[in-house]
Each structure stands twice: as C-alpha cells, then as structure tokens.
Design brief:
Helix Hairpins, five-stranded mixed sheet, 7 helices, 13% strand, alpha/beta, Pyruvate Kinase, Chain: A, domain 1, 5 strands, 302 residues
C-alpha cells in the first residue's frame, strides 16, 4: 500500500527526533570518554610500578608458601571468572563480547574438569549470566560509568577471600582494553595465584627491565622480601582490578560514542531516502490531480 505524504512526513519527523537523541548521546559519551582517558593515563604509571615492584619482590623472595595468596593448588577444582562490562547498553557489542569470551573460557575449564564460577561487574553481564543459567557467585553494579578505587577494593576483597578460603583455586579477569574510540580489545588476565598471574608473565618484561636485572639482584629488602610481598599482593590485585574497571569504562564510552555516531549516520541516510519517497508521493498526487482536471475538462467539452 502506497504511503501518503502525511505518512512519510510523520516518519521523517520521528527519525529526526531519534537522530537528535543519538547525537546528544554521542556528545555525552565523547565528553565522558575524555575524562576516562585522563584517569587511565594517570593510573597507568602507578599500576606499572606496582606490577614491577611485585614482580621484583617475588623474584627476590623465591618460594613463599606461607603466603595464602601465593599458594598454588595441586589440583585446580574451581575457577573464578570475573567479567567486567557495563550497567547500560546502546554500546554495540561492548557487553556481549565480554560475556561471550567469559562463557567460552568457562566451557573450556568445564571440558578440563574444572568448575567455573562467575563474578560480574556491571548489570549487563550479570543479567546475561543469569539468563544463560550459569552460576553467578556475586555481582557488583552501579558504578561502571565512573568507578572508584573503593569499588575495585570491594571486588578484590571478595575474590581474595574466596581464594584464601579455598572456594576458588584460580581467578581470571575479562575486560575490554581501551585502544581507541573505534577499537577495544577483549583482554584475559590471571589474577591469582601470583605464580600464574599476568604480572609475572615473561612477555611483560621489556628490554630495560632485563638490563636492570643485575642491579635488582643487589637490592637489600627491609623488612624481608616475603613480608613486603605479603603487603604488595593485595595492592596488586586491587590495582589490577581498578585498572580493568577504568579501561572498561573508557572502552564503553568509546563504543557508545561510535554506536551513536553510526546510528546518527543511519538516521541521516534514512531521512534522505524518506525525503525522496515523499517527493515521489507528492509528484504522484500532483499527477493524479492534473489527470483528474484534464478528464473533467474533456467531459465538459464532450
């Protein structure tokens, strides 16, 4: 059924209203993204220093089985998977990418005979995990737009307590690492135990750190490295989670800004198409009116 000019005009008005909303959301996301980028830049030197100090103290201390957070389980039974995403949608595949990655790794652990338990930071991953019928041990919501260090400490205390109590034998974290507004990379890191953690991964050591290896061997620790390491590990876990929260926040704002920009562009294209359709409908109505006038004139003449 052909649409009238009025119908098409109403559709154009509706699309224009949606376009105004998407443009406003794009500008809000862009402003929040700049602040999130600044917070990441401010944290990265501190996070890198904590990781470097933890790695150096672990190398100096050697085997320290008396520290609960360092004890490796002979048989890994339960693995905690912490999924960091957002509270809201309208950000493209930002939330779903994290859920898919976490669920896929959970299936891998299940295939290896491990029991996967999920922790969620953000309403979206929490609701997705519940919808899939997966075991959600705990969820943390209400702060993904602007996370504070206290939020990271709360999450860290929860997973560390579960590890020390023996409820978890390994803890992994999934989050979107911010690269640019157009690019976010799903990252997977091991938090606990420390011997398997990303902080001790060989690939993280750059050339400068390897050159400093000999100098570090001459460092004297007071108190002993084991005690220092015992103080550093909780801070390392907290900072690692806080960094993941900030990276995820920046990624969310970047993804939402990109999604809203694409939506605005799609709305512009749709408005152009509807305008052409309205012009065609107008031309058809004018042609019909002309034909009616001509037919009437011919009838009078006849």
């Amino acid at each position: 059924m052909a649409q009238t000019q009025r119908d098409v005009r109403e559709r154009i008005g509706s699309v224009k209203n949606i376009q105004k909303i998407t443009r406003a959301m794009e500008m809000v996301a862009a402003a929040r993204l700049r602040r999130a980028e600044q917070r990441i830049e401010a944290l990265r030197p501190y996070a890198d220093a904590i990781r470097r100090m933890t790695r150096q103290a672990a190398e100096a201390a050697g085997s320290v089985p008396r520290l609960p957070l360092l004890q490796e389980r002979e048989n890994v039974g339960t693995v905690g998977l912490l999924l960091v995403a957002g509270d809201r949608g309208l950000a493209g595949a930002f939330n779903s990418n994290i859920v898919r990655a976490g669920v896929a790794v959970g299936r891998e652990h299940s295939a290896e005979g491990h029991h996967a338990v999920y922790f969620a930071s953000g309403r979206r991953p929490a609701s997705s995990l519940r919808f899939r019928g997966l075991e959600l041990a705990d969820s943390f919501t209400g702060f993904t737009d602007r996370p504070a260090y206290a939020d990271a400490r709360r999450i860290a205390e929860r997973v560390m307590a579960a590890y020390v109590d023996g409820d978890l034998d390994q803890v992994e974290i999934f989050y979107n690492r911010y690269v640019s507004p157009l690019s976010q990379v799903v990252s997977r890191e091991t938090l606990l135990p420390l011997a398997q953690a990303t902080v001790l991964a060989e690939e993280e050591e750059d050339e400068q750190e390897r050159r400093e290896g000999e100098a570090r061997a001459l460092v004297e620790y007071e108190p002993d490295p084991e005690e220092i390491l015992g103080r550093l590990i909780p801070d390392y876990v907290e900072v690692s989670i806080y960094r993941a929260l900030l990276e995820s926040t920046a990624s969310e704002h970047g993804a939402r800004m990109t999604a809203m920009r694409n939506a605005s562009e799609n709305a512009r294209t749709l408005i152009e198409d509807l305008t052409l359709e309205m012009n065609r409908a107008r031309q058809a109505e004018i042609t019909q009116e002309i034909m009616e006038v001509v037919a009437g004139a011919e009838g009078l003449v006849g």
